[in-house]
Write a structure and sequence with these properties.
Largest sheet: 8 strands, antiparallel
Strand order of the largest sheet: 3-4-12-9-14-7-6-5
Number of helices: 9
C-alpha cells in the first residue's frame, strides 16, 4: 500500500500499510483494583478475576467523522465536479499552453532530483502501535505471567500479584517498543521505492508574466472569496512543485494529508487541506491518476477503469481535499500515479491550514509581487 495507514486505517499502512487515516481521541482510566489492607490469601479464581479486571480498565476510542472541506470559488471557470463526498474536481484549461511550457522549461533549467518520500504519520503510527501492544499482548501476557507466578503460592497476596504483573508488564513493554522502533525504521526505508519520479520546486515569482506567477495567482483565485488578497491565499501554499514521470516511473497509492500533521508538519503550515495538480502535457499512454477507493463515475470514458481515474490533458487541473476543514484526515482520497508510458509532467500546489514559511512556502518578498 503506502505509508500512512496504521491508526489511519487507523488501518495508512496498517502495519502492512499507509491502514488509513481516521482521527481518534481515547481516554484511559486507571481503576484501583487492589486494597492495600487485604493481605490475606486469595483463591486462584479471585486472583485471575482481579487480573482480568486490569484488562478492562481501558475505555474504547471514539472516532470523529470527516466533516466539510474548505470552501473554494465554485464559479471558477472550467470547474467540473467528478465526484461528491469526497469532492473531486477537474478544471478544464486551468493553465494555458504557454504557462505549462514555461513551468516545464524552468524545471528543466533547475536541478531536478528524485522526488522525496516521507513516512508521514510515523509519530502517530508509533504511538498507536505502542498503545495497541500495551493494551493487548503486553497486558495479557503480563496477566498470565503474574498468575502463573503466584497460583501455587498459598501465601501470595493481591500485592504480590500486582508486583509480578508490573514487573512483567514493564519488561514486555520495553521489548515491544524496541520492536516497534525497528519496524518503523524498516518501513521508512521501504517507502523509497514507492515514488520514482524527479521533481523540483519553483519559488521565484520575479517574472510577472511567467508560468509560476500565473499558476500561483490562479490557484489563489480558486481558493479565494473575492475579497482576500492573492498574497494572503498564497501564504498558505507550499511553493509550486514540478514533477516529471519518465517511462516506467510511478507513484504508488498514498495520501497527501498527514495524521500527525500537528507535530510533523508544524513547520510547513500544518495539515494539507487541498491538493491542486495541473497536467503540463498531453499523455496518451499511461500516467493516469487513479483514486483507488472511489468508484468510476457514470460517463467516465475509460471502460477498463472501475475506479475514478483522470487522464492527463495539457492545462487541465485536478483538485481534491486530503483532509476536511478541521484538518481531519480523509482516507477516501488515497490516490496513485499509474506507471508512465509516455513522459508526464505535472505541477502541484498543496494548500495548508496555516502560513507555510520558507523554505517550504513562498517568501514574503515573493508574495508581495502578487
Amino acid at each position: 500500500d503506502d505509508f500512512k495507514r496504521i491508526k489511519n486505517h487507523r488501518a495508512r499502512m496498517g502495519p502492512g500499510g499507509r491502514l488509513v487515516t481516521v482521527e481518534s481521541d481515547g481516554a484511559v482510566e486507571f481503576v484501583s483494583i487492589f486494597s492495600m489492607k487485604q493481605q490475606h490469601r486469595v483463591p486462584h479464581r479471585t486472583k485471575f478475576a482481579i487480573a482480568f479486571s486490569l484488562a478492562t480498565a481501558f475505555s474504547a476510542a471514539a472516532f470523529a467523522p470527516v466533516g466539510p472541506r474548505i470552501p473554494i470559488n465554485e464559479n471558477f471557470p472550467g470547474l467540473q465536479r467528478v465526484h461528491s463526498n469526497p469532492d473531486v474536481f477537474v478544471i478544464k484549461n486551468f493553465l494555458n499552453e504557454a504557462s505549462c511550457n514555461d513551468l516545464m522549461k524552468r524545471a528543466r533549467n533547475k536541478k531536478m532530483e528524485t522526488s522525496p518520500v516521507a513516512y508521514a504519520g510515523w509519530t502517530t503510527d508509533v504511538k498507536d502501535l505502542i498503545e495497541l501492544a500495551a493494551k493487548g499482548p503486553v497486558t495479557w501476557f503480563s496477566i498470565l505471567g503474574a498468575w502463573v507466578q503466584v497460583k501455587d503460592d498459598a501465601s501470595a497476596s493481591q500485592v504480590d500479584l500486582f508486583v509480578h504483573f508490573a514487573q512483567d508488564y514493564l519488561a514486555l513493554l520495553a521489548f515491544a517498543i524496541v520492536g516497534i522502533g525497528a519496524f518503523t525504521w524498516s518501513r521508512a526505508q521501504g517507502l523509497k521505492s514507492q515514488r520514482t519520479s524527479t521533481s523540483t520546486t519553483l519559488d521565484d515569482l520575479a517574472d510577472e508574466k511567467g508560468g509560476v506567477v500565473d499558476f500561483v495567482k490562479r490557484t489563489a483565485d480558486l481558493f479565494g472569496d473575492g475579497t482576500t488578497p492573492a498574497r494572503d491565499q498564497a501564504a498558505l501554499f507550499e511553493a509550486p512543485t514540478v514533477i516529471r514521470y519518465e517511462s516506467g516511473q510511478v507513484l504508488k497509492p498514498h495520501f497527501d494529508a498527514n495524521r500527525s500533521a500537528d507535530t510533523e508538519d508544524a513547520n510547513r503550515g500544518g495539515q494539507t487541506l487541498a491538493t491542486l495538480l495541473v497536467y503540463l502535457n498531453n499523455v496518451e499512454k499511461g500516467g493516469l491518476t487513479r483514486f483507488g477507493k472511489l468508484p468510476a463515475p457514470a460517463g467516465q470514458n475509460m471502460p477498463d477503469e472501475t475506479k475514478l481515474t483522470v487522464q492527463p490533458q495539457l492545462g487541465d487541473a485536478l483538485l481534491f481535499f486530503p483532509a476536511d476543514a478541521r484538518g481531519l484526515f480523509d482516507e477516501r482520497t488515497e490516490h496513485e500515479g499509474c506507471p508512465a508510458v509516455d513522459e508526464k509532467w505535472i505541477a502541484r500546489i498543496w494548500r495548508h491550514a496555516d502560513r507555510v514559511p520558507p523554505p517550504f512556502g513562498l517568501a514574503d518578498d515573493a508574495l508581495a509581487r502578487l
